[in-house]
Amino acid sequence: MSDGTQGNKTVENASAEEQREMQDKVISPEKAEEAKLKARYPHLGTKPGGSDFLRKRLQKGQKYFDSGDYNMAKAKMKNKQLPLAAAEKTEITGDHIPTPQDLPQRKTSLVTSKLAG
Amino acid sequence: KEGARGGVGGGNDFQWCFSQVKGAIDEDVAEADIISTVEFNYSGELLATGDKGGRVVIFQREQESKNRPHSRGEYNVYSTFQSHEPEFDYLKSLEIEEKINKIRWLPQQNAAHFLLSTNDKTIKLWKISERDKRAEGYNLKDEDGRLRDPFRITSLRVPVLMPMDLMVEASPRRIFANAHTYHINSISVNSDHETYLSADDLRINLWHLEITDRSFNIVDIKPANMEELTEVITAAECHPHQCNVFVYSSSKGTIRLCDMRAAALCDRHTKFFEEPEDPSSRSFFSEIISSISDVKFSHSGRYMMTRDYLSVKVWDLNMENRPVETYQVHEYLRSKLCSLYENDCIFDKFECCWNGSDGAIMTGSYNNFFRMFDRNSRRDITLEASRESSKPRAMLKPRKVCTGGKRKKDEISVDSLDFNKKILHTAWHPKENVIAVAATNNLYIFQDKIN
Questions:
Q1: Chain A: nearest CA to B195, how far in angstroms?
Q2: Is residue B377 pLDDT above 90, yes or no?
Q3: pLDDT of residue A62
Q4: Structural domain includes residue A4
Q5: Which pLDDT band holds residue B31 (cuts at 50, 70, 90)?
């Protein structure tokens, strides 16, 4: 449980509710961090830590590929440059066409572990 | 409060000293070398590690030797093998990592050793056996294996067993596949030594060690409509003595204890453990930091321990409404949650472990720090796994994080902590004060000085 230890308690002639709100902001480091986050990402989901991050967890490893897009793009490829994969980390989905060169190479680790060396 | 001396553990004043470190020193760490699980076997003689590259390395403790009294109980490589390889599920367009999520040893029943290792989708039973004899004097083949011409054989001999250099072989004896739609986070061997459970984000299955084509689903929390998903299973473990009891933890900070005698499908728990939360202190981060990353029964079977992002809690199985003990691991991170969310560290899954007598518990933190709590004396200590303090038998110095105000000498400020140096996996020898700490790609072994 959050046990804010830092910060000065403001003692004013405010209503109990206002006072507690102020105390929350001043005393609770967690709430201060939350405010910081909301300031940076105002559209952050209403459900705290809810389905969004759970769904992301369940979809780990999922890859996307549309063969129709791929083949159409290959046909056009003769003349134009295609938008390439931005970075390895971003998921390869609809808006650009992956080519075999874009895909990160998966090498099996048939090298002996260095712990055994 | 830090312990005045270097020791924590089981009521006595132990002094942790460096013993060994395994792994490469170079700065550039290959992802495959990152250690993903560490586990002692039941006797503590063997120590297994799994890594992101799907490899398992097993160390064996050396017998005490009069010649080298100081190298008492050093762990040296015993066997290493490739347990899992990367796969691609073409049907689901799903990339399956070879990373070893968990290793669990089976109790030893004969000369061979058995362990279960699992990645996200497949569990394998490995047999590790020793071969120190070889048959020589075959009739139909030469010593180098070439077949002899049967017509040239004029007499028969009986092959004899001759000693040979010790060879340790690992072979996969069972492969338990295709039972998990979601990613496996836990495996746990049952006390009946016949069955084990495997848990993924939404389901828990019960297996028989001999049977690979069938498994029983015992928990299923998948909602009919995935839009309604609010909670996932984060860890599960079998009770150490009661073969009908197991627990599983959730991303909402709750633990459910189930009794397999009550029903075939244990969707309804027998006990529900949750600490009441002060609603006024709730924030965006509350649920995320309450997610339990590990659950472990005590050896006694009376207690269980859970690890969430900032703390470790000990629960009495007889009391569901709150833990009996709470230990703060790194409370100073509470005022850093915003950046820890942005760099994903808030989702790091730390494990925890008990010592053999259940008197002490250990868990990891950042900056290669790890924490130990003595349940009896209530003392705690922060230690560091680093190459700097890696001289043989050097005593580890307690570390301290400065949370504000004037930083004392030898203290480190919260902002200087290296969040890439995480200690997620630690293990405690089942009988002695020997610990194994995985620091990214290095394995540290520490022992207490008293022995």
A1: 27
A2: yes
A3: 87
A4: no
A5: very high
Provide the token pair at B404.
């504000």
* Nearest one of B179, B139, B178, B171 to B157, comparing CA atoms: B139
Q: The whole model's pTM is what? A: 0.86
For residue A15, the tally of other CB atoms under 10 A from its CB is: 9
- Contacts with B103 from chain A: Cβ below 8 Å: none
Residue A101 lies in a domain: no
Is A23 contained in some domain?
yes
Task: Return d(Cα B44, Cα B413) in angstroms, integer.
Answer: 37
* Cα→Cα distances B52→B82, B84, B182, B211, B355, Å: 11, 10, 18, 27, 26
Number of domains within chain A:
1
pLDDT reading at A86 higher than 50 = no
In a domain, residue A30? The reply is yes
pLDDT digits (tens, 9 = 90+) for B138-171: 999 888 888 988 888 899 999 999 999 999 999 9
Alpha-carbon span B293 to B252, nearest angstrom? 11
d(CA B447, CA B451) in angstroms, rounded, equals 9
What is the length of chain A?
Answer: 117
Residue A3 has pLDDT above 50, yes or no: no
**Residue type for position A65:** F
Instruction: Please give the C-alpha separations between residue A6 and each of A18, A22, B333, in angstroms, as whole numbers.
Output: 19, 14, 14
A57: nearest CB among B82, B232, B334:
B232
Which residues from chain A sit within 8 angstroms of residue B35, using beta carbons? 115
Residues of A contacting chain B (CB within 8 angstroms): 1-3, 6, 20, 24, 28-34, 36-38, 40, 44, 48-51, 53-55, 57-58, 60-65, 106, 108-117
pLDDT of B385 > 70? The answer is yes
List chain B residues with CB under 8 Å of A60: 120, 183
Residues B244 and B190: their CA atoms lie apart, in Å, by 9
**Rounded CA gap, B195 and B215, in Å?**
10
Confidence of residue B276 (pLDDT cuts 50, 70, 90): very high
**Whole-Å CA distances, B224 to B129, B202, B220, B221:** 46, 12, 11, 9
Q: Strand order in B434-439's β-sheet? A: B16-22, B442-448, B434-439, B425-428
Distance from CA of B138 to the nearest CA of A (A): 34
**Closest Cα to residue B39, out of B134, B115, B125?**
B115
Cα–Cα distances in angstroms (integers) from residue B295 to residues B23, B248, B322, B349, in the given order: 28, 8, 15, 11
CA angle B110, B114, B115 (to 5 degrees): 155
Instruction: Tell me whether residues A48 and B51 touch, CB distance under 8 A.
Output: no
- pLDDT (0 to 100) of residue A94: 53
Report chain B residues whose CB lies below 8 A from the CB of A88: none
Chain B, 92 to 151: residues with Cβ < 8 Å from chain A are 92-98, 120
Contact B80 A113 (CB under 8 A): yes
The number of beta carbons lying within 10 Å of the beta carbon of residue B451 is: 10
Taking CA atoms, B405 is separated from A25, A78, B385, B413, in Å, by 20, 64, 26, 10
Mean per-residue pLDDT, B194-200 = 98
Q: Domain range for residue A33?
A: 13-61
